[in-house]
Amino acid sequence: MAMAFKMATTGMRVTDECTSSFMDMKWKKVHRYIVFKIEEKSRKVTVDKVGGAGESYHDLEDSLPVDDCRYAVFDFDFVTVDNCRKSKIFFIAWLVQFTFIPFLILVASKGKTVI
Questions:
Q1: How many CA atoms lie within 13 Å of 61's alpha carbon, on the beta-carbon side?
Q2: Which CATH number describes the domain made up of 2-114?
Q3: Which residues contact 73 (CB under 8 A, 6 or more apart)?
């Protein structure tokens, strides 16, 4: 609910697929990462690519375009010095240098409202 409310205040809308994919990653651990795309004309955030549970950060890097902006979330598993298994979800704003400036500003400024 918080996600839908935050996006409503920015004029952008997150699709139901984004929400369900993120919840599947967070609670069911079926995805390692999700790449989100902003559709500039419709002002919607949609799922661009989903990485399976066995994929790595390098697979995420390879899935990001060199000529367009994206948001991504990555579920990072690690073991602490106390030998405890942990997991953290990282939010990534993928911004490329030669993007149309108003769109780049939109992507950079609205990143926190996506998640």
A1: 3
A2: 3.40.20.10
A3: 22, 25, 33, 34, 36, 89, 90, 91, 92, 115
CB contact set of 26 (below 8 Å; sequence gap of 6+): 75, 89
| DSSP-based three-state secondary structure for 84 | coil
Q: pLDDT tens per residue, the chain (115 residues)? A: 444 434 444 577 888 999 999 999 999 999 999 999 988 788 888 999 999 999 999 999 999 998 888 889 999 999 999 999 999 999 988 877 665 555 555 555 555 555 4
**Alpha-carbon dihedral of residues 43, 60, 63, 19, nearest 10 degrees?**
-30
The structure's pTM equals 0.77
Q: Which residues pair with 74 in a beta bridge?
A: 33, 90
CB 45 within 8 A of CB 53: no
